[in-house]
Amino acid sequence: MTEDDEAFVKVVDVLKEPVRIAPDLTIRVMAEIEQFPVPGAEPTPTPLRFAWARRRLTLRLSPLGALATAAGLAAVVLAGSRIAAPGETSGLQGAGEAAESMRPTQFVLVAPQAASVTVVGDFNDWNPSATPLASANGGGGGVWWVTVPLPPGRYRYAFVVDGTTWLADPEASAVEHEFGRPSSVVTIGGA
Amino acid sequence: MTEEGDGLLVRRVLAGERQVYARLVERYRDRLGRYAVRMLGNRADAEEALQDAFVRGYRSLARCTSAERFGPWLFGILVNRCRTYAARQARRQALVVTNEVAVASASVAHGEEESAWREAIFWALERLSADQREAFLLKHVEDLSYEEMEKLTGTRAPALRMRVLRAREELRRLLGEMVRD
């Protein structure tokens, strides 16, 4: 079998076919490394993508009136217009351009029975405690929301209800599977 | 969103953002997984070796001197883990009757003849010695140069060339037998 004969090419083609590893491998790895300390290294500066948290932001968002009357379970993601940052007081000069390209993105879930809701996604490394949603009456009104400034791009996300129930956005059209569970996709447009 | 490079992700993990490591695992899971599956011939062993490699990679991440080359660095760890698992397999070889990958592949919407041919390829690959299989996969499936293979395996290029040559001869013999049957 030489490198250029047909049989050899065929063998290599078959062996090069992609392999799909079970998505829960990621969860197993992450669970296992929990027991180990963070590997030591030089400290690095705070990543630019978190610069928005230090800025004073003025948000312009669509109203949510219609949603509040929705029955049962519904959710929506609203991408606002460009964030204006007048009267900005923080000193992140170098981060100015990156922060100004952020879009206020509102994640809303109507879940009257929920005691807590968080959103997980590409933008917070699927960390269920990173981005909690707020509600008017401790969830009694059923509408939970949070606004997350995001740069334009495509994000996968899902809601986590009461810390245990993973929920794809029932209103989102695209669904992909993250860690073997359903998740939704939102695309935030550019300027 | 601009895809963050390996270097940035590695630095974030090292700065204490443990969760970010999940993104590196996601990024390389399938790409590295192919080598493990081909080398070990069954998914259970391959996924165990892969998990082992990712965990070892995390624990020694500070030694990943070129963070931008996380993928190739982790691949080196995986190649070593696969050697260990292959040695374990060799010890229990008497128990291995079928190649699970071959069976699984054959069941995926391929024609009967195509399935038989694919099954034969996986079967023949498994018949190679672990050294030959490793050299063949690194050279022809992962497309590494002999120089890269030297660094990865610690074996000199002439010996690696010989293993690849023997592997090709053996595959030809095994697959030829199959065709004649």
Architecture blueprint of SSEs:
The complex is a heterodimer of chains A (191) and B (181).
Chain A: H1 6-16, H2 24-33, H3 65-68, E1 74-79, H4 96-100, E2 103-110, E3 117-121, E4 134-135, E5 143-150, E6 153-161, E7 165-167, E8 175-178, E9 181-188
Antiparallel strand pairs in A: 1-2, 2-5, 3-6, 4-5, 6-7, 6-9, 8-9
Chain B: H1 6-14, H2 21-40, H3 43-59, H4 70-91, H5 100-106, H6 112-127, H7 130-141, H8 146-153, H9 157-180
Number of strands of chain A: 9
Structural class of chain B: mainly alpha
Total number of beta strands of chain B: 0
β-sheet strand percentage of chain A:
25-35%
Quaternary structure state of the chains depicted: heterodimer
Structural class of chain A: alpha+beta
Terminal residue distance of chain B: 55 Å
CATH architecture of chain A: Sandwich
The chain-level mean pLDDT of chain B equals 86
Provide mean pLDDT of chain A, rounded.
66
Give a written overview of the molecule.
The complex is a heterodimer of chains A (191) and B (181). Chain A has one domain: Sandwich (Immunoglobulin-like), CATH 2.60.40.10. Chain A is 16% helix and 28% strand. About 27% of the residues of chain A have low confidence. Chain B is mainly alpha-helical and 181 residues long. Chain B has a domain of 96 residues: RNA polymerase sigma factor, region 2, helix turn helix motif (Rna Polymerase Sigma Factor, Chain: A), CATH 1.10.1740.10. Chain B has nine helices and no strands. In chain B, helix 6 packs across helix 9. The longest helix of chain B has 24 residues. About 8% of the residues of chain B have low confidence. Classes of the chains: A alpha+beta (191), B mainly alpha (181).
